[in-house]
Predict the structure of Probable phosphoketolase.
Amino acid sequence: MTQLASMGGDTAADNEGGTGGETVAPEAYTLGDATGPLDPDALRRLDAWWRAANYLAVGQIYLKDNPLLREPLQAEHVKPRLLGHFGTVPGLNLVYAHANRLIRDRGLSAVFVAGPGHGGPGPNACGWIEGTYSELYSHIPRDAEGMQAFFHQFSYPGGVPSHAAPETPGSFHEGGELGYSLLHAFGAALDNPDLTVFCVVGDGEAETGPLAGSWHANKFVNPARDGAVVPVLALNEYKIANPTLLARIPQEELETLLRGYGYEPHVVAGSDPAQVHQDMAAAMEACLDGIAEIQRVARAAGGDAGPEDGRRRWPMIVMRTPKGWTCPPVVDGQQVEGTFRAHQVPLPAARTDGTHRAVLEQWLRSYRPEELFDEDGAPVAELLEQNPEGDARMSANPVANGGLLLRDLRLPDWRDFGVEVGTPGSTDHEATRVLGRWLAEVTRLNPTSFLTFAPDELASNRLQDILDVTGRSWQAEIGEFDERLDRQGRVVEVLSEHMCQGLLEGYLLTGRHGLFTCYEAFIHIVDSMFNQHAKWLQASAEVDWRRPIASFNYLLSSHVWRQDHNGFTHQDPGFLDVVLNKKPEIVRVYLPPDANTLLSTYDHCLRSRHYVNVVVAGKQPQADWLGVQDAALHCARGAGIWEWAGHGDETGSDPDVVLACAGEIPTLETLAAAALLRERLPDLRVRVVNVVDLMRLLPESEHPHGLPDSEFDTLFTADKPVIFAFHGYPWLVHRLTYRRTNHAQLHVRGYKENGTTTTPFDMVMLNDLDRYHLVVDVIDRVPALRSRAAGLRQEMVDTRLRARTWTREHGVDLPEVAEWTWPGATGQA
């Protein structure tokens, strides 16, 4: 090690950033003797590949010029802003290098998941050595010029992020937010029998709730039909500023914990490169041998073996290496290597402080780049020979660019599953139950490319017909009284919204299809995961070589208006607000009002690509409004006039008022209000507009589905009152329509955070969304009615009071409400 005084710069400017104390540069090491499966030559070659990846990682963080140190390092060679994270990178590169050896030796199809946050320099470097980076980015060849461009772009304006991102070849996991690496890895392995996923889990990440739950994902892996995950728990002891919990508990306690999760841990620990390489080689071979045996037994048994047949624990690796391994051990008198100070940039003043810069140069030279890159700056032949070939490279495996593998689903004609509708409202169905019959057939027709995920709510959300064609996936013990658990099941039910979301993301990102059904109020648990996935979709759409993947499809039921029995905690439609914060190119929100429109909507969603589709639909019996053909037309329009529900439109006259609605219960209350107005104010011209596709409310300049102003004004009028009954928070509709001509006349009723345990109708009354209040709104906003309809207004107010009193006395809704049906209209819906 070389020790330098931290104030040894040449000029005053050079000395900025020094804090006093010695700074120690790492020295190049010579591999000593170590026992293990690697012969001396294999050990030396593998270590050279690892050193090359580490060199390229450090270069990305620090250098914008002089990439091969062909001249002494100067301040102008160093980036003005030093961004990035080195602490976790050597461990990532170590796993990657050893995985490549096994890919070559065993003919594996493998992908790599970098779980530790902001470890992007590692996978970037590995992809550059493998050549994939240069194939995808022709302006970054594998030579000195390309290396400079490669370094310059990292964490630089207009460049690439500091984590494994859509721009990173071979990545399908965003490393910026922690907690989801294992879920993405296991999601990728499902229905991929020949795939091995090497997943590095950061020990800081391992403290998160989603990651803690995701260890259980192995209970949903059937070794007969699925691939395998090799988790590598990277214990480098520190996160940003504190030690990590799993690194500080006794080793026996840690191993007991992991065995309890169903894993057999193999420990790799130390800081001597030679011995760590040997131990990692032995551990990886043991893991793959163990996986091969588990799969052999399961596949011989036809995939029906379970714990009672001698289920074995899945192998994994616990890797203990120093934080910032190989970086300067001491900087400005403070220990860096092996501490939290190595988490990001170990030499933060390398541009302005001469000592830091000198140590940076020695650090880079400690990897001996002259042995690793030829005169042209390309990796030497010895490194290239260690790369897998073609698609076998983890940075080039098509699985990590799932759109390349994506195939259309076989979808039955949804019309064959629709319900008969004569007069609107004359029949009723559970909309999601009707959808479930169709989804059962979708599941049957796509036995290896479609999965349904639910947090123990499949039957509660009325999708239980899917279980007639498949069971619930289950690889743990099956008890005497359990129902519909199936080793081969195509439904994944686990009481963790995080796990459902993450597994489906991994499944979609690697080229398959699926849906996630959840109670509306509790989908908020995955708000942050949704944000990350939506951002991935947006960013990857801007990467030329990425191919569109299947859309992420939510089905939210047990919604706010029918959670009256469960109370206030179960009443929250705010996920729609979260979704609409994202780029309009990525998100879609649908509020189908009945069974047939739900079928049509979901058929569209399962055919779509590269979106997040949010569909909110009820599971309780509700009236059927539209027949199959009209439902198809209405959903294609996204928003339209229901002429049979209003009155006055057929004369060609402008309406006096527009009753608009979006959502199942708002539609019901709007139609009931329209019927009251038709009966009590027959001269009033009322138009009823139903909105299925919420994005139609936006201008066409703001969303691909948006209505042009002329069409919006034709539908909603440019100057008449609009009473809009909305499923969610009312201000969302205002946010979508504030630029419209008639926005000043738009009055929205929706959920106002008034909830309790009560009856269905009392819930809408609590939020002023009920039919009687909608009639009052019409009287208050149509000038000609204010005095003429005063008696009707008073009657509506009194009826609301009577309905409230009835619920308190009888525990159910007023009969005229509970038994209400549409009074009839000419023609068929």
Summary: The chain is about 35% helix and 15% strand. Residues 573 and 728 are 5 Å apart (CA to CA). Residues 639-818 form a domain with the Rossmann fold fold (CATH 3.40.50.920). The longest strand covers residues 195-202.
